[in-house]
Structures are given as C-alpha cells and as structure tokens.
Amino acid sequence: MSTLNVTLIQTDLVWHDPEANRRRLQERIAALAGQTDLIVLPEMFTTGFTMEATSVAEIADGPSLSWMREQAAKVDAVITGSIATREGDRYYNRLIWMRPDGAHSTYDKRHLFRMAHEQDHYSAGARRLVVELKGWKILPLVCYDLRFPVWSRNRIGTDGAYDMLLYVANWPERRRYAWQTLIKARAIENLSYCIAVNRVGKDINGINYSGDSAVVDYLGQPMTPPSEQEFVTTVQLDKAALDGFRDKFPAHLDADEFQLVE
Q1: Residue 159's pLDDT is what?
Q2: Is residue 14 within 8 Å of 20, Cβ to Cβ?
Q3: Is 230 a catalytic residue?
Q4: Which one of the listed residues 19, 118, 137, 143 is annotated catalytic?
C-alpha cells in the first residue's frame, strides 16, 4: 500500500487517573472510525510521566491494554502509546502496538530519563521493535530515545529497516527547541518519515508541556504546524515518494557500518 493515514492525538493528561484519560481519549478515537490506519497517543497516556511506578503501574494485560484492544477493534486501526507496566517485580515504560485484531507487540523504553531518575524506578528495554502496517515498516520509540541516534538508526536493506520512525513523548516545554530540532534530524539522517506525539498542559510537578507534535517528511520538512493546543489531526504519508527519494539520493549506501548491541 503506497499511502498510510496516521492520526496524532495531542492532549492534556489527568495526573494518575487512567479512567479519566481513557474516557477523554475514547471520545476522540471514536470519531476516527474508517478514517485512519494508525492512531498515536503520548507517552504514559494513562497517568502522565510519573516515577510512582509501584502505585500506578498496571499488570502486563491490565485494563488499559484491554481498553486499547477494544478501541482498535472499534475503529479498525492500530493504536499505540506507552503505559507504566509491571511485569513480575520489574516496572517498564512500555509502548503498546495494538492491532485491530487484538494482537499486540511491545517495546520497553531503552533510554530512561536520568534527570528525572527514571532509571531508579523502571527497567530499560533491551531490543528494538520494527512492526509492519499495510506494507510500511515502522520503528516505534519513546521520548528520551529521540536523543540517541544510534538506537534510532535506520538500517536500510536489512531486517532492521523502516519507512517511518515514531516517538511518543512527555517532552517539557523548556526543551522544545531540542525536540523540534531532533525530530527533523532523525528524519533527514534516516531517510524516513518521522512522527512525534507529545502532550500539552501542566503536570502535578509544575512541568509545562508545549506539545509541538509533528509529522516530518524524509527531507526534514514539517507536514503539520506546531501547536501548543490539544488537537487531533490525520496526515497521509506517501511511500512511493519516499522510495523514489531513496533511489535518487541513496545516502544510506555510504553510511558507516557498525553492530548495534541490543
């Protein structure tokens, strides 16, 4: 399939209230039935970016995962976002890739945000996840991963190749310039579309989030305007155009070879 419709939901989040967040998101998701292939929610969309893992994390097959399964089936689209998740005696900032048929894949955030002591509360992931949707290969990552280009590196021509790089985030306003710049950089260097969904509002710790969720093409050109407001927008991506650019400008053929230790 040459085109893919991707929907970004930029929203404020209710602190530590999964039910309220699910209810608010459900209203927006319901209106997307038959209009999109992929719906992207922010990082920790049920709670906000919290270090209180022991009190808010859900079990691996908890109510929010069940909710994602129900919503994906209703709108016949993939839904993705991350949830604080407990598995055994460990906690993860876990991205869920929920398909309409109820099957799902997961990615545990690799780079934990040291400045918030995330590594003291959550365990780091050890593997990348490349998923396929209607002929598109997609690499979904989480927030702070954006700062680490090796982990995000597109290995075109290998099993690790992708057509779209995707980040879900709770990225603070005070670092918005880095957010906006790095999204474009990751798209350009990886010859890939880049989707990045952030939250807005202020959390209980007084941290402001400016949103700036974005769709950027393989040239690093924004396909959506920056916004600090809540919004839902759908963008159509063109794989034929991407493949054509890679054929004309195959910079990946000159990339340095390396082995990524996962």
Answers
A1: 86
A2: yes
A3: no
A4: 143
